[in-house]
Amino acid sequence: MKKTNVDLIVGASILSALFILIGGVIWLKEASIASKMVTYTVLFQEVGTLQLGDPVYANGVKRGTVGRINLRGTQVAVLLNLDRSVPITDSTRVAVINVGLLGERGIGATLTSAGKTVPPNTATDTVFIKGYFDTGISEAMGMLGSVLLDAETLLVSVTEVLRATVGDSTFIYQFHTAFGRIDTITNVANRMLLRNEPVLNAAMRDLRVVSSDLKALIDRNTPGIDSLVVSGNQLTANGIALVTRAESLVVSVQDVMQKLERGEGTLGKLYKDEKFYHDLKYTIANVDSLVTDVRDDALRLRVKLGFGKKKKRAD
What are 244-294's pLDDT values in tens digits? Predict the structure, then answer.
């Protein structure tokens, strides 16, 4: 009986020591792992089916897990528990990726040596990293549902069109009528071509002859045509020069008229001087009166001279 009790005590002690050893190893391992982990906060517009504990991959190698998912305004803040040795920079692309055939999600970080190093979170400071969302199987299935709905709507529309055309006896009758008219027009055109084939052949021969004569005429007169083109170019250049001179003359005339209106120069001063205008008008009136008087006096003088002559006696 004593031996049995001793055996139980020894066995219990051994089991207790074994449990303590295993628990200590696990605790030390977890503590060692935790001491090598840091946290980063990434902001996403959407995370899909991402869950706590989902893996975090650095260039395809698992280096952490998702620690927390919270809403931050209109965005989603995801806390990443990541290995301290993973270099995160502002050029690193962090995205929600698809990691399974059933829509499982994870975080994928594409590392790069470019950019400035992003420090991990501290008790007083948090740097937010911009995240991206890669469409996965679940989103593709959702889009497939929308595509199937659109396809069903399209099928209904096609069915209605077929019923309104092929399934309508009136449409079939009109189609056969139109097709018969087209066939009749084709037969008439064929008969016209057969009847007028000699005429068409002669017209084509005449057209070839005319084309040959025209080509020969052009070949013989090529130097004259070239000279005409050169003369035309020269005439165009002269015309452009003449237009340029005319534009310059117009500008000069406009400048003179503007100076005249502003009263610049002798003509401008005379144009603006109202006293000169009245004096000129008065002078013209006096000249006109003087001319009238001179004409009247000359007339009276001629009359007086005519009446003052004595007639000679005839011998």
Answer: 888 888 887 787 777 767 767 666 666 666 776 677 777 888 777 777 777
Strand partners, 132: 95
160-210 tens-digit pLDDT: 887 777 777 787 888 888 888 888 898 888 888 888 888 888 888 888 888
- Residues in Cβ contact with 81 at an 8 Å cutoff, skipping those fewer than 6 apart: 37, 38, 39, 56, 64, 65, 66, 67
Question: Among candidates 53, 28, 30, 43, which has minimal Cα distance to 118?
Answer: 43
Hey, which residues does 56 pair with through a beta bridge? 64, 107
How far CA 64 is from CA of 33, 46, 84, 85, 92, in Å, comes to 10, 20, 10, 11, 16
CA distance 94 to 64: 13
pTM confidence score = 0.40
Binning the chain into helix, strand and coil, the percentages to the nearest 5 are: 65, 15, 20
Among residues 136, 115, 112, the alpha carbon closest in space to that of 50 is found at 136
H or E element that contains 34: helix 2-35
| DSSP-assigned letter for residue 270 | H
Lowest mean pLDDT segment, chosen from 48-57, 101-110, 113-122, 225-234: 225-234
